[in-house]
C-alpha cells in the first residue's frame, strides 16, 4: 500500500469517496436521463468502479505505486464502469429487452 494509514484515515477516505460518488451520481442522473440508473445506483456504480480501478492500479505492474496514479485509476475506473453499464442498458432497451 502506498500510505501507512490507520483506521481513521481509511474510514475518512471511504466516507469522502462515498460523498463524492453521491454528488457525482446526482449529476450523472441529470445528465443521463432515461439511460441512467437513478441517483443511488449511479453512486454505487461509481464507488464500485473506483475500488476496481484502485485495485487494478495496485496490482498491475505497468503503473507506478504513487497517489497520483491511484486517484487517476480510481476516477477512470468509476466513470468507465458507469459508461459501460449505461451503454449496455441503452442497447438492451433499444433491442426490446
UniProtKB/TrEMBL annotation:
The chain crosses the membrane at residues 6-25, 37-56, 68-88. It comes from the Bacteria. Keywords: Membrane, Transmembrane, Transmembrane helix. This is GlsB/YeaQ/YmgE family stress response membrane protein. It comes from Oricola cellulosilytica.
Amino acid at each position: 500500500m502506498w500510505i501507512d494509514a490507520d483506521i481513521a484515515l481509511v474510514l475518512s477516505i471511504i466516507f469522502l469517496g462515498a460523498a463524492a460518488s453521491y454528488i457525482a451520481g446526482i449529476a450523472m442522473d441529470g445528465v443521463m436521463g432515461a439511460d441512467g440508473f437513478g441517483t443511488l445506483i449511479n453512486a454505487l456504480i461509481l464507488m464500485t468502479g473506483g475500488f476496481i480501478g484502485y485495485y487494478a492500479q495496485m496490482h498491475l505492474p505497468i503503473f507506478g505505486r504513487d497517489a497520483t496514479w491511484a486517484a487517476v485509476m480510481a476516477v477512470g475506473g468509476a466513470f468507465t464502469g458507469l459508461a459501460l453499464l449505461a451503454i449496455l442498458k441503452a442497447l438492451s432497451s433499444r433491442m426490446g429487452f
